[in-house]
Amino acid sequence: MGVFDWFSALSKGDEKVAQVEVSTTQAGAIKDESVVQGLDFVAAIEAHRKWKERLSAYADGTSTEKLDHSVICRDDQCALGKWIYGPGGTFTGHLPLFHQLKAKHAQFHISASQVVEHVQQGRTEVAQGLILDGEFSKNSRDVQTLISKLYMEMKEQ
User: Fold this and answer.
1) Contact, 26 vs 101, CB < 8 A?
2) Nearest-angstrom CA–CA distance, 69 and 87
3) Cα separations in angstroms, 68 against 55, 73, 81, 110, 134
4) Does residue 65 contact residue 54 with C-beta atoms inside 8 Å?
5) Which domain holds residue 49?
6) HEC secondary structure over the chain
7) CATH number where 65 lies
């Protein structure tokens, strides 16, 4: 599966495609193709997908990470956020999809920080619900889909 096909499937909500591991021989080619206007779209999807694993481990007590909800809630600190508030806005700010991604990305970080807050307040069942099928889960899927859609739209231009 090529990178364009991967993005196409993911942009249609095919979450299973995001789980496909890329062989090391394909990784270089995909890396070259996935960087558009300074953002590695594959890495952005992977970084946000991995939050589910990180938060799950945090909620079930197996994580050694010290997570700070006041940092996690900031949508301008990760690579995608820095791109959105920097060159991404310059290059794609005219696209409605960019603004959808910007808003959903902010919601993603807020919902991730809420998971951490619930865990820190001893409400792990609530946190796990947000991770499995609650607001965090929905925002995570939506961010991945919107990143893919934006990539597809940018490649078509």
Assistant:
1) no
2) 26
3) 12, 9, 17, 12, 20
4) yes
5) 3-156
6) CCHHHHHHHHHCCCHHHHHCCCCHHHHHHHHHHHEECCEEHHHHHHHHHHHHHHHHHHHCCCCCCCCCHHHHCCCCCCHHHHHHCCHHHHHHCCCHHHHHHHHHHHHHHHHHHHHHHHHHCCCHHHHHHHHHCCHHHHHHHHHHHHHHHHHHHHHHC
7) 1.20.120.30
Q: Per residue of the chain (157 residues), what is the pLDDT tens digit?
A: 566 666 666 667 666 655 554 444 344 444 557 888 999 999 999 999 999 999 999 999 999 999 999 999 999 999 999 999 999 999 999 999 999 999 999 999 999 999 999 999 999 999 999 999 999 999 999 999 999 999 989 888 7
Number of structural domains the chain divides into: 1
